[in-house]
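Need fresh eyes. Consider my entry:
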Amino acid sequence: MHTIIRNMLLPLLAGAAIASAQAAPRAGTSADYGSIVSTSAIDKVVKIGASTRYVNVEDGQTVRFDVDGQTFAFAFHAWPGDQSVDLAVIAPNGISVPHVRVYIAPNRNYFG
């Protein structure tokens, strides 16, 4: 009898755990848009200057940003519907960036 109850209960508990993990609210951090990566697999290089106000990237791209001689690479994997982010949100600690908006186009591999 206990085996039957356990076999019925485990899938229900596992399903509830998965559903709650998927419904977790976004935190508004760089992880919502992608992740900092090594500079070995770069798709695009963007130099940020004093006159730069915005940058266009594509979801799925790995972009190296050059900000006053300091560089970092970011792999964009944004949530659906996220179309832009301030560069300061995704820049690593210690790199000071000007107010630059990064516009994220949908990945052409998935949306034609």
Observations:
- DSSP finds three helices and seven strands in the chain.
